[in-house]
Amino acid sequence: MDSNPNNKKWRRPRYVPPIDWTMVDKLLKSGCTGSEIAGYFGLTKNHMYARAKQEHGINFSEYSQMKRKCGNAILRNKQFDVAMDGDRGMLIWLGRQRLGQRDNPPIVEEMPQMLVDFIETMKVSFGGKATSIENKEAEDTDEDIE
Fold this sequence. Notes:
By secondary structure, the protein is mainly α. It has two domains: about 20-100, no CATH class; about 115-145, no CATH class. The protein is built from seven helices and no strands. The chain has helices at about 20-30, 35-40, 45-55, 60-85, 90-100, 115-125, 135-145. Helix 1 (about 20-30) packs across helix 4 and helix 2 (about 35-40) crosses helix 3 (about 45-55).
């Protein structure tokens, strides 16, 4: 008697490697991509994405985004703690990133009148011709006319 009434070939069930989702979470929090994680477990990216949908009920993209945001929050908190412990470099870095602080102040377009007067005084003291910026512009336009 034949145990295979439909005459179909018997196949072994396909091996589905287990996925340690705790490790996946850790790798996502540290910034790994889905492809890298799939490679870590010896899977294809598509297989990894399908398993996430099957086991968690959401797309892998959504799942990874949640875990990555959690990792970002942990990292920011740790950076803040290190800065508050007195790490000068971390304080400077956080000041630049979060507060927009810079080493060089922005260049001011106009010179204060006191500085202009000082420069003119120094020119006279060293024997140069003291001309104000307005007089220089007027001389330039006179030369253009001639």
